[in-house]
Specification:
Blueprint lengths: L1 H20 L2 E6 L5 E7 L2 E5 L5 E3 L7 E4 L3 E6 L2 E7 L4 E3 L6 E7 L2 E8 L2 E5 L5 E7 L2 E3 L5 E4 L5 E3 L35 E7 L43 E7 L1
Antiparallel strand pairs: 1-2, 2-3, 3-4, 5-6, 6-7, 7-8, 9-10, 10-11, 11-12, 13-14, 14-15, 16-17
């Protein structure tokens, strides 16, 4: 009889153990049409695609998982409000902040986080973009984050939302690289050169321009040319036909 009772207890314990370690898979169809499988094993939760790819494994130990319009809210024990993206990448680990909420403003994705009652911003790589130091933060219509001061007035931080890859949209303060200006080439300086200039009277022939080198005037073949005194050479260039002059080229 004792053996039968012992066997019954053993069967019950085995059944309970199998139930605890059995993995359940339930289809989830969201309001935006996204479909996925929620994995459940004991108190652990995970996620699997429709194609059978587990993108949030049970080994992470999440005790809660919920799809919210393009992202997943996850918990781990009493540590709440972690964030995973649609691929299962853990952006904010549960317990890092008191709460973490995914936001999408005009195409800019970021996570609003709270720690000890203060609000900050993380980018989609989990990097802290604005440390949790404000009572509250909003994304204003003019494209910047604003915080509420002690007088209830919303004051600009001058910071725009981070892009999904973690880069910022803050105006680049580095001056642009100046456009290279053409370098002026040195101009060659004029050099002195000797140039032969023909005599304007004899046109370079060296002959007297009156008697044309004959020594006698054309009108009196027996007389003497009064310009060259009968020598027949140009009196202006002394029969050289011209002279060398210095010009700069």
């Amino acid at each position: 009889m004792k053996s039968i009772k012992y066997l019954a207890v053993l069967v019950c314990m085995t059944f309970v153990s199998i139930s605890l370690f059995a993995q359940e898979k339930t289809l989830q169809t969201e309001s935006d049409g996204f479909q996925w499988y929620k994995l459940i094993q004991g108190d652990k939760k995970g996620a699997q695609s429709m194609g059978g790819v587990t993108f949030i494994p049970l080994s992470r130990g999440y005790t809660f998982i919920c799809y919210l319009s393009g992202w997943f809210s996850v918990d781990k024990g009493d540590k709440e409000n972690g964030v995973c993206d649609i691929t299962g990448k853990e952006i904010i680990a549960p317990g890092r902040y008191d709460s973490a909420i995914y936001c999408n403003e005009d195409g800019f994705e970021y996570v609003t986080v709270k720690l000890n009652g203060k609000t900050g911003i993380c980018d989609m790589n989990g990097r802290e973009y604005i440390a949790p130091r404000y009572e509250s933060l909003i994304f204003s219509a003019d494209g910047v984050f604003k915080y509420e001061d002690s007088f209830g007035k919303w004051v600009s931080t001058g910071i725009t939302p981070p892009k999904a890859n973690g880069t910022t949209t803050v105006t680049n303060t580095v001056p642009p690289t100046p456009t290279p200006q053409p370098q002026l080439q040195p101009q060659p300086q004029p050099r002195p050169m000797q140039v032969w200039k023909p005599c304007p009277y004899c046109q370079g022939s060296g002959k007297c321009h009156v008697c044309l080198g004959d020594g006698h005037p054309l009108t009196n073949p027996t007389g003497t040319c009064i310009v060259c005194n009968g020598r027949g050479i140009c009196s202006h260039c002394a029969g050289h036909g011209g002279q060398n002059v210095i010009e700069y080229h």
